[in-house]
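[recover] target loaded
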């Protein structure tokens, strides 16, 4: 195997030293080596891809749908996404000029931040949150400003937003993720409106990561784009709602003038997404069968959430019922202190259950554990029994 020439180590983009492999994966990989471990770590659906989507992908392959596609995605998928945004969230985005299909929401996050951030620019990021945003900001030479929301039920208040704006001069964007990974908390329409009222007086671009928008329990998802269409980039995709993380289909929606810039980054970076994957996503966004498959998965998640929240409560964890996504963010019982990493390590090694330490999700996550219920009810029951055993010993 070739070894890299030693003197090349000085040749790289220095911003690379500002990012590390995500500790979530590192922790999960280590814990996964423990024989018989039950994993509550997965950030992806445990369901199979709905039949209607599989068939669409098969048809696409049979039809020799195998050429470079339009850079912003097939017209059929962009049309489906446009219909979906209108039908589900009452958002108006033109399929030709205001929507681009990306390689998962991940690429959309990168393209959006790349189009906005130059070295030294600041980005507001309410935390705890998905660590990718900060990693991308760092890679671009920007500065991520964590806004700890743990004292406000994991929701950014308009007052805290205003304070952050008063304190920082170079803020170009804010990233909002709701329903949230890792807390499962989402924002009500009123809460979003209150933030929008503050942001309307600024030139900040709002990056709204709504990848879990279909997984809301007992309520309606509202997009901040409803209140702030002129300065919002909506990010979403089929990964969670269609249980198709491996197909890598996401999208961005924004006003045409904004989309032009995003599209530039996107087309230079990826040319176009894969045809069969795009074909598979069409019925997820815009068919009865696809929608029903999402609703069925949501019903299963909701039952698991109710079981896990009640069980954790009985075990002394502080846990408010999350109303979206598939995560519970549980506060350690007081007698265990706030060292979430130590507790999660002990739980993996002795209890044979793996969860993700809350501190991996940024300021405000210390003393919490993220547990994913994107796993079977049997696994959840086993995990709860094992946690109980460990706490009792
Ligand atoms: C909040 C959030 N945004 C984006 C992503 C990435 O989505 P995708 O798999 O579509 O790239 C994830 C994945 O876990 C996520 O939790």
């Amino acid at each position: 195997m070739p070894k890299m020439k030693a003197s090349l180590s000085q040749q790289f983009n220095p911003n690379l030293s500002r990012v590390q492999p995500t500790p979530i994966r590192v922790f999960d990989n280590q814990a996964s080596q423990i024989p018989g471990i039950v994993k509550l770590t997965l950030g992806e659906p445990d369901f199979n891809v709905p039949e209607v989507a599989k068939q669409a992908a098969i048809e696409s392959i049979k039809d020799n749908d195998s050429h470079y596609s339009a850079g912003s995605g097939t017209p059929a998928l962009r049309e489906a996404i446009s219909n979906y945004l209108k039908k589900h969230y009452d958002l108006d985005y033109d399929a030709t000029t205001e929507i681009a299909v990306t390689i998962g929401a991940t690429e959309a996050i990168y393209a959006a931040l790349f189009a906005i951030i130059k070295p030294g620019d600041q980005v507001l990021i309410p935390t705890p949150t998905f660590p990718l945003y900060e990693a991308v900001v760092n890679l671009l030479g920007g500065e991520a400003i964590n806004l700890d929301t743990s004292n406000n039920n994991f929701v950014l208040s308009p007052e805290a937003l205003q304070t952050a704006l008063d304190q920082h001069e170079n803020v170009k964007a804010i990233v909002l993720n709701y329903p949230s990974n890792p807390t499962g908390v989402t924002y009500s329409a009123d809460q979003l409106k209150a933030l929008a009222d503050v942001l309307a007086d600024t030139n900040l671009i709002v990056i709204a990561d709504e990848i879990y928008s279909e997984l809301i329990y007992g309520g309606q998802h509202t997009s901040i784009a409803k209140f702030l269409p002129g300065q919002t980039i909506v990010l979403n995709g089929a990964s969670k709602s269609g249980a198709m993380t491996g197909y890598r289909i996401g999208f961005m929606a924004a006003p045409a003038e904004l989309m032009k810039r995003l599209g530039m980054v996107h087309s230079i970076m990826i040319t176009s997404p894969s045809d069969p994957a795009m074909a598979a996503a069409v019925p997820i966004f815009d068919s009865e069968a696809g929608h029903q498959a999402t609703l069925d998965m949501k019903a299963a998640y909701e039952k698991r959430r109710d079981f896990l929240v009640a069980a954790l409560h009985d075990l002394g964890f502080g846990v408010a019922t999350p109303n979206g996504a598939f995560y519970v963010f549980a506060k350690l019982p007081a007698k265990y202190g706030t060292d979430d990493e130590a507790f999660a390590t002990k739980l993996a090694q002795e209890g044979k259950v793996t969860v993700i330490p809350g501190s991996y999700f940024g300021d405000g996550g210390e003393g919490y554990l993220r547990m994913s219920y994107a796993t079977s009810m049997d696994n959840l029951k086993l995990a709860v029994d094992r946690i109980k055993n460990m706490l009792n010993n």
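[recover] notes: The first helix runs from residue 23 to 32.
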